[in-house]
Amino acid sequence: MNGEKIIMNKLIKLVTSLLILFSVLLGSDQRIKTLGGNSLYWPDDDSNIEYFPQLVNNYNIAQISGIRTSSDSLYGKLIWGDNNKYGFSWYEANEHDVLNFYMGTGSLGLRLGLLSAATDTLDSGNETSELGLSGSMGANNEDLDLGLHVSTYSNDDGTTSDQHEQFTTDVYFRMAMDAWVLKNMAASLHYASSNDDFNIASTPLAFDITVLSAQLGFFNTINISDNATAMLAISTSFSSMKNFEGNRDLSIETIHLPNFTFGVEGIINEWAKARIGLNKNYQLTKKTNLPGGSTKSVRSGEDLKKAFGLGFNYGAFNLDLYVSEGLFTNPVQHIVGFEDLEPGSGPNSSSVIATVTYTW
């Protein structure tokens, strides 16, 4: 049985490799992972819809991402329309999703989400319920994109303790401008609060855990040649966490400066592209405020992160892969199935490896 399983696994790898050899996505989660990990620096990618809902007006798309993964990363998205756009999305990680709906017209876009579940167990007398509401809206003109997101979540586990409460809000901003050799600016602001450390498996606390973060980046797309495009971004970020991991009066403040993001996408032939992304961040300061008033400060560099990918175009049908770097350094072993194609590290690393998209 184990021998048959090994053979089947190698066969699956071989089929995937043949697709690579004989098969570029306009945009996908996998493309961004292999180009530095930040959609804001690649405005042409359809993943920007999640940040700027008004960009739904630019696409007719049917997409499935998270193929060949054992995690909760699988999701699907469908968007269509002419003057007015409509769409739906589904996420494996949110099994109680009722609706995720998109709508757009002109320079405006909207996304609404509803999550709901309930149980009533007569023999135990416990009634449980959860409810999540989310909304996003965005607007743009020729040189500016703006997106606003708000979500709230509550969970009553049927006990006498307080129910779980979570709240998040995000703002995204991008505009064209000249800043030295960098021609565009992107910024984001995130705030979240929770009484359960953002984990419904935890016991609700008598106080809130709060997270505040902000990022400001400048980026530029560089046409290296007719067959290759590069992107360079330099950014700074700030984050603050209060009552960290449920420890009252424990707070952490972090500033990163500078952060470098670099991605290159090169054409192999008319139906295939190769991609690589790099991240290098410097932690300018990390200040930990301990209960009782003492503090601890750290300044240090962080490891260089890299990711590799491939993209293939079959006309209106597109495939993106986030793959192991060994496919480039030792292709034969990976193509014949003796080595895994799945990446082990990189920007936003996960077991997700493929996105399939159909556009029209």
Structural summary, described in words:
With 360 residues, the protein is mostly beta strands. Helix content is 10%, strand content 56%. Strands 1-2-3-4-5-6-7-8-9-10-11-12-13-15-16-17 form a 16-stranded antiparallel barrel. Strand 13 and strand 14 form a beta hairpin. The longest helix is centred in the N-terminal third of the chain and has 21 residues.
Write a concise synopsis of the structure shown.
By secondary structure, the protein is mainly β.
Topology:
Blueprint: H1 2-22, H2 29-33, E1 61-67, E2 75-81, E3 84-91, E4 97-105, E5 108-121, E6 126-141, E7 144-156, E8 164-179, E9 182-194, E10 209-225, E11 228-242, E12 251-269, E13 272-289, E14 295-301, E15 305-314, E16 317-323, H3 326-329, H4 331-335, E17 354-359
Antiparallel strand pairs: 1-2, 1-17, 2-3, 3-4, 4-5, 5-6, 6-7, 7-8, 8-9, 9-10, 10-11, 11-12, 12-13, 13-14, 13-15, 15-16, 16-17
